[in-house]
Amino acid sequence: MPGTDATSFVFARRLKQARLRSGLTQEQLGIHAGIDEFSASARINQYERGKHLPHLLVGQRLAKALHVPTSFLYEEDDLLAALLVTAARFTREKKKILLVNAETLAQGPSTVRKTK
User: Is 76 helix (H, G, I), strand (E, B) or coil?
Assistant: First the structure.
């Protein structure tokens, strides 16, 4: 799948960001994601350059190997991407609390105090 659209660019940037944060080489990431070791480095390199966009199943395996939600790899908004990574580490109970607070924030300024 050629990688010329915005999704390929976002995926490429997020993949590299998560891989560098994890401390994995391109080859190590590819192998952890189930890509054949002889082509792992080259395939990850192509994904990170935006030349190719992997099928969703491969994207899911890459996300799992990087310990990030799959949606992080496709999210255009930097703040939302950071929220996804942070929220993914929460327990189910904390995710419920976060959701309630987020819904309260979404209701409008009269119900919330802004932070600096």
Answer: coil
